[in-house]
Amino acid sequence: MLAGPLSLFGRQLAWNYTDQVTTVGGAEVHQDSWVWGVPFEKQTVTLAYTHISPFDAEGRPGPEQWIEVFSLPPVAVLTDRVRAGYSETTTRTEGGDTVRATAWTSVAQPTEGLTVAGQLQDTNAGPGKFARTAQVRADYAVRPNLSLNWRFLESRQVGMGPAVQQYVGVEHRLDSGFPLQMRLGFTTYDAPGNAPEDTALAAHLAAGNESKTALTASYVEFDENSLGQLAEKTVAMALTHRLSERVGLRFEYQDQAGRPAPMRGVSVATAMLGGRMTLSHKSNPPDPRDAKVVRLADQWDAELARTLGRLDLALNYRYCQFNRPSDAVEQYVGVSLAGGQPDDGGQVKLTYLTGDFVPQPQGKPAPGSSLELSYSRRWSDNAEVTLMLRRDTAPFGMPTPEGNTEGRLEFKALW
């Protein structure tokens, strides 16, 4: 990576260039990108260009891709109480369609307690491939401890009528000797051929203080971020209690209509072995590889975090006993050791993860295990170097034990 400032027509611009090669199973992906930052109205306009060239294991080139991005963060329009922004992303694929996505955003604050935000997004991938989404959100603070929320979401596709989702919510907080917080939300769904319209409810209750005793309970029928309906209604409860400054307890419960068995959990955290240790047990927890799957098993976890001189140590161990005729058992470990600081002689980090502790890659199975060694060194704000070596084994259940080895060297300098 190369980066640096540039003065043009009296404006101080920022830029960086990145050239990256990723190798997986013999196949390579070459990616180079330019990013420019242009000051405008106390904000920064971003211009970016990325070129991606894939090659298979035998060196044959695949379809190239070009991505162009223009982004203007919300800036004041006539008054500081109204701001508007715009972004556009164009993706061209060799031998494929050109996809152009544009988004207009705005935020207004007519009064001190009222905030209204909106977004209009269009996606055009060619004839007959146009989609539009409009969103509006309003938040009104009636009093410091009482607020009202309203959301409107409309989506359209070619050849289909509009699908409309509306949300109304209220949140009330009581800051007394025993704090209490309540939130209720109600969503309606109006889609083509949907008569009468569907509805969904969400209710949350939080009581107590986490520094001593706290209880949370919820009943949810829809995703409160996307407003999409859940396949099954969910009930969840959690109770935390601190026995002392050193010891804390937590109890959990979760159930759904189609769940084969509810999830129950208990954990204790305490100062031990010179650090902080957490021991926990869960029955029938969600599968870390797929949150929609229930793991019919008894799962025990032990976690230890402590500092040894200038070394930070983290240990994780998981034991799973499945409720199957064979009483199958799976065990996973995670070890992380880091020492030093990037701007004080450099930092070295060694990580070994197996099974559940391996991060889940996007759109593909997680490796069975991962071993990574990295070194990073920074010289003030002018230069930085990072070296990473990683070895992944094949995912569980794969017919071949072949894994993947990756090495990466990154250097960034400003001048």
N-end to C-end Cα span: 13 Å
Given helix and strand content, the structural type is mainly beta
How much helical structure, as a percent, in the residues?
under 10%
Q: Number of DSSP helices?
A: 0
* Radius of gyration over all CA atoms, rounded: 26 Å
Q: How many structural domains are formed by the residues?
A: 3
Mean pLDDT over all positions: 86
Percent in strands: over 45%
List the uncertain runs. Answer: none
Count the beta strands. 27
Task: Let me know the largest β-sheet.
Answer: 25 strands, antiparallel
User: Which word captures the global form?
Assistant: globular
What string, H for helix and E for strand, traces the elements in order?
EEEEEEEEEEEEEEEEEEEEEEEEEEE
Briefly say what this structure is.
The protein has 415 residues and is mostly beta strands. Helices cover 0% and strands 72% of the residues. The chain has a 25-stranded antiparallel β-sheet, with no helix packed on it. Strands 19-20 form a two-stranded antiparallel ribbon.
Which tags fit this structure?
415 residues; single chain; mainly beta; 25-stranded antiparallel sheet; 27 strands; two-stranded antiparallel sheet; globular
Structure description:
The chain has 415 residues and is mainly β. It folds into 3 domains: 1-104; 127-242; 243-415, no CATH class. The protein has strands spanning 2-8, 11-24, 27-40, 43-55, 65-77, 79-93, 98-111, 114-124, 130-143, 146-157, 163-174, 180-190, 198-209, 213-222, 229-242, 247-256, 263-272, 275-283, 286-287, 290-294, 297-308, 311-322, 329-341, 346-354, 369-379, 383-392, 404-413. It has a 25-stranded antiparallel beta sheet, with no helix packed on it. The chain has a two-stranded antiparallel sheet with strand order 19-20. Strand 11 (163-174) and strand 12 (180-190) form a beta hairpin. The two termini are 13 Å apart.
